[in-house]
């Protein structure tokens, strides 16, 4: 418990702070940097594996491939059941009030955080450095380190979430360089500096309000029935057929919930289906939205534009929910039975 400074760093890869496109690595330099971690025979295999042109040096593209191999090959703190990816990882909401609570949460620390739980018993720590590791979260148990003033997590490229309790620590430095997967706090906040980052984390502790607003995006070919579907959602009836959408029509749609004056509000985006708009539409495909892909079943799946729109949505909003809605089913049935 008397320990005040602790470094638990993984093996750095080559040029972690940024590579020059003209940079090359000779074998001697490669061996000198990594020989304390792997024996010379293993290093020779790695160097040869990525020296694709067999010229004895690694070029910029070869260095990047070699770095990815080293990140996986050399042991570092990482969940045994988590693949290396940028996929979304929900933060763990847990509160540790004493050592027994920490023991109960050891599975979180092992499976998701990978920070050894014994670290959170070192209440006299003033400086903690965990860099070049594969950790995904900093758990709530960090609040036990009440004297921590320097916390460095540089180049933990899988790190996604910091506990809000980091904001309550007396930190003078919070180093997050190279944490490319970080979502909480978001990069827009960390770029503003230490003060703004700590203020953001503190606000997370103060509570939150459930947001009942989202975007509803209707996409599909022209004439598929997107505007008619929007009218049906909003219970708007008209004898006149809808006009062709020009660009994007945006309307509000409130869905009543169980309690009085409680609504789920959608901002409904009705995208024009003409091909002339396709290039512009891609700039408006939001990640945090619900998508309805409308297609005319009379045209068949191969001609309904499904492949194009599914590919576009998955490219620009890979984790967004997509509902595929077929229209003109009554006309299809009439034509089939006539």
Write structural notes for this entry.
The chain is of the alpha/beta class. The protein has three domains: 25-73, no CATH class; 80-205, no CATH class; 213-337, Rossmann fold. The chain is built from eleven helices and 13 strands. It has helices spanning 27-34, 40-50, 60-73, 99-104, 106-113, 187-190, 194-205, 226-233, 278-281, 306-316, 329-337; strands at 5-7, 25-26, 57-58, 127-129, 137-138, 150-152, 161-162, 173-175, 213-220, 248-256, 263-271, 289-296, 322-327. The chain has a five-stranded mixed beta sheet, sandwiched between helices. Strands 1-4-6-8 form a four-stranded parallel beta sheet, with no helix packed on it. Strand 12, helix 10 and strand 13 (322-327) form a beta-alpha-beta unit. Helix 1 packs across helix 2. The longest helix is centred in the N-terminal third of the chain and has 14 residues, at 60-73. The protein is flat, with a radius of gyration of 27 Å. The model is unreliable at 81-111 (pLDDT under 50).
